[in-house]
Structures are given as C-alpha cells and as structure tokens.
Design a protein that fits this description.
Helix content: 40-55%
Structural class: alpha+beta
Order of helices and strands: HHEHEH
Number of strands: 2
Number of helices: 4
Shape: globular
Mean pLDDT: 76
Low-confidence stretches: none
Strand content: 5-15%
Radius of gyration: 13 Å
Amino acid sequence: CSKLLRPKIMLYDDADSELITPDVVMEVMDEDVSKADLILWIGISFQQSASLEYFRNILRVIKEFGKEGTIVQGLINPDEDSSFNALTGSNNIDDFK
C-alpha cells in the first residue's frame, strides 16, 4: 500500500449504523474504490441483497476505472458458502477470471 490505510466499515441493522455507514455511502464509494489497492470483505456471507449490491457496485466501479488488474479483493469468511454466494450473486462470472 503506497498511502495511509483508511478502513471503510459498513454495518447493517445496528443502532449506530448511520454514523458508520451513512445513506450517502454509494455516492462516496466511487472515489474510495478509485484510490484503493485492496478491498477486504470480512465476515460477509453475501446472503443479504444489500451486501450483494455493495459487491456488484464495487465490481462496476473497478471496471469503470479500468483497475481490474490492480485492485485485489479478498473474501475472509470461514463459511465456505460465502464465496459461492458472492460469485452466484454477481452479475458477471467473467469478472472473476
């Protein structure tokens, strides 16, 4: 990583989630992804439509910025179904080659 690490945390259905993940998260996501070297999905099962929406949007932004070969995404979850859920829930399996 060539710059200071800046984590982005998203929470669902938590009393304080608006403080951490405001409604404008999609509006700032493009800029965040354009500057990213690494995106980690930690503990996400991709069973909920909201997490799949974030995942699809990240893939879209990576493509729009032409950074398919430079941004690494990692899925960290002991549940083996989480990667299957992410792959089958995405719009284009070819994005994972």
